[in-house]
Amino acid sequence: MKRKRHGTEEIIRKLREAEVLEGQGQTVAQVCQKLEISEQTLHRWKKQFRGMGDDHIRRLKELEEENRRLKGAVADLVLDKQIIEEVMRGKD
User: Fold this and answer.
1) How many other C-beta atoms lie within 10 A of the C-beta of residue 72?
2) Which member of 8, 15, 37, 89 has the lowest number of beta carbons within 10 Å of its beta carbon?
3) How many CA atoms lie within 13 A of 55 on its CB side?
4) Closest Cα partner for 16 from 52, 65, 61, 58?
């Protein structure tokens, strides 16, 4: 099976769908097949997101976005530093 990185929103959506399907009497294997994930992934997600309310999920998404933005800022600063170092080497 091909590895795929799922975003938080997609994971939450799939977990909610899994709850509905399981409530309709489908087996875990059937649910996983429909959601196109492994049973191991479903169990890991359930463990990771168990008990998280909408407020926690929203905050998690905010933190992920902030982390993405900060990583971009760090990458820009590293690039600026490399350019400055290159210019300084050229002056010697």
Assistant:
1) 10
2) 89
3) 0
4) 52
Contact 6, 62 (CB under 8 A): no
Is 56:62 a contact under the CB 8 Å cutoff? no
Considering only CA atoms, which of 30, 28, 38 is closest in space to residue 6?
A: 38
pLDDT in tens, 39-70: 999 999 999 887 777 788 788 889 989 999 99
Q: Note the pTM of the prediction, 2 decimals.
A: 0.60
One-letter identity of residue 74: V
